[in-house]
TrEMBL record:
Highest taxon above the source species: Bacteria
Protein known as: Tyrosine-type recombinase/integrase
InterPro entries (UniProt xref): DNA_brk_join_enz, Integrase-like_cat_sf, Integrase_catalytic, Integrase_DNA-bd_sf, Integrase_DNA_bind_dom, Integrase_recombinase_N, Phage_int_M, Phage_Integrase
Domain Tyr recombinase: residue ranges: 202-377
Family the UniProt entry places it in: Belongs to the 'phage' integrase family.
Entry-linked Gene3D superfamilies: 1.10.150.130, Integrase, DNA-binding domain (3.30.160.390), Intergrase catalytic core (1.10.443.10)
Native species: Seohaeicola nanhaiensis
Keywords assigned by UniProt, alphabetized: DNA integration, DNA recombination, DNA-binding
Keyword DNA-binding annotated: yes
Amino acid sequence: MTRALNKLTAQAAKAAAPGKISDGGGLWLHKRDDGGSQWVLRVVVHGRRREMGLGGYPTVSLREAREAADKWRGMVRQGLDPIKERERQRREAERNIHLLKDIALDAFESRKAELKGDGTAGRWFSPLELHILPKLGKVPVADIDQRDIRDTLAPIWHTKADTARKAINRLGICLRHAAALGLDVDLQATDKAKALLGKTRHKPTNIPAMNWREVPAFYQSLNGGTGTELALRLLILTAVRSHPLRHLRLDQIDGDVWTIPGEAMKGRRDATPDFRVPLSREALAVIEQAKPFARDGFLFPGIRKGVISDMTMGKFMDRRGLEARPHGFRSSFRDWTAEATNTPREVAETCLGHTAGGAVERAYRRTDFIEQRHALMERWSATLKADNRKVVAISIAAEQ
């Protein structure tokens, strides 16, 4: 057998006429009439003859062709089909190229247009970045299974249930993105992981909120004239979320109406997404007081750049020894409307920017109750400015 190998020389291979020339051991050089040449290895696997291309000549030299032939003949001796084995190795190499971290970034880029502010706040990507990618980021996405996901999220599955839920949902999106790219992934891996992890024991807690009867005293204590205090006052007066309040621009205010762009409103998908906020006389007075602080069009700028942070307002309340958070004033306002007024539910919910009613009802209702909300916000500001004795009297009357 050894004598039958390596029949060709480099010079003979170069000078050979068109046709098939054997180098021995099943290695052939096929020279075509058009001048092209191809190395072919013929082997018999499981009683079936297989022909395997090893590349073009002279790009693949005689020495390289012999080395490749030796490698694949070794596979045949192990009972493996060299063509199938080469395909398996090619797929393995492709899996190694498509790491989860790269797929996650590509999925994020594809979804930026759907996210508020093109995802610059980082809330979509951060669950992946903090809890998935440190352990699985360098793993080929096709290799990720439910056990990998379970082991990654087990430490936070019960202690940080909401964060873990977001992380596993984002990972599911990444796996679907990989499948759309043509990669061989297990689309059920996240569901299987949830089954392995079990039901979470963690019970979600609401954001701490101040009782509405205590809000007037707190509101009236915000009399230092600082930007943080004025931001908190306007937050309480309007019952909006922190993000649009902190990003309030002077050009969004027209008379006694503040129009929040739709992209700044959480979860809104309306055909006309902008949200109008009625401004009471007290709210307009607070805005006038805040104007000297304005910078780059923002009414509540940060100390160095950008806008005031939610943490700044939260820390102010911490220093006052309060458990309540800035976002909780929305709950305070909603409780006030329910306990101290006869405001229709759809009006109160619209004040908070919530979608009230079913799909059919919303399709026929085209109003945002701006006039009713104006009157309601004037009553709310009057409650906030009233002395404690009047507030107590109001609460007692509401309970009777």
